[in-house]
Predict the 3D structure of the following.
Amino acid sequence: MEVLVLVKAAPVMTSSLDETMCVAGVRIDGGRNEWVRLHPVPFRDLTDTSRFVKYQRIEVTCIRHNTDRRPETWTPIHGSIVPHETITTTRQWAARRPYIELLGETTMCDLLARNKNGSGPGVPSLAAVRPVNPPAVVMASREGEQLKRWKAWADAALATPSLFDDPERPKPPFEVVPWRFRYHYRCAAPSCPGHKQTIVDWEVVALWRHVRSTQGWEEAVRKKFEDELWTGRDSLLFVGNMEQYPNSFLVLGVFWPPVGVVQGALAL
């Protein structure tokens, strides 16, 4: 399949000592314009020629996940990812906007209602949601027992070489992030009670790593995720749920083109 990558979630370490990440985007081959989730993707184990960035078109060979019932989920075959061109932000994101418009939008309240009985055919697990106001960022340290468990997995993984490890190019140890970043917002549903969702976008983790040693780093995170991504922007959220908990949704990323009508946007 051909996929335009929209989301790269922060890598996680599993209890089976696998380091994986979730990638989501829009499938564009064969006249399709639909959500697709690639999972698991061992991103740090990919070769340099297979690595990709957000808004890059990739070709990838996939099979259906053997247990995941979410209709958008596919398992990529290791070594099959071929990156192609990256869609740029020129002309007010004119080339990116049509892909998102074709996916459409929904409200978070409607998405939760559709998932109340679990995942399965016809039940969306990925969507674009537009908050009625810019979301507020809330940061909190993670629970001690959770951190202890994750660090134990990371230490065990370090002592257990992966089949994909290159002994001549050892990768840095997996770092457990001790903070949880959440968005609080209301969707456009008339009676929306508000939503509180963890942000798993790789970019929030990368920003935290960049500013964590500075005094008042929390304000740097707020400036980016409360102000820069929303002020003067026609922004919306990309959200997705968890396989084990279909009614628990996460913020996978933010689409933040500048406000304004774009003339002559590229046709797909």
Q: What stands out?
A: The two ends are 16 Å apart (CA to CA). Confidence is low (pLDDT under 50) at residues 264-268.
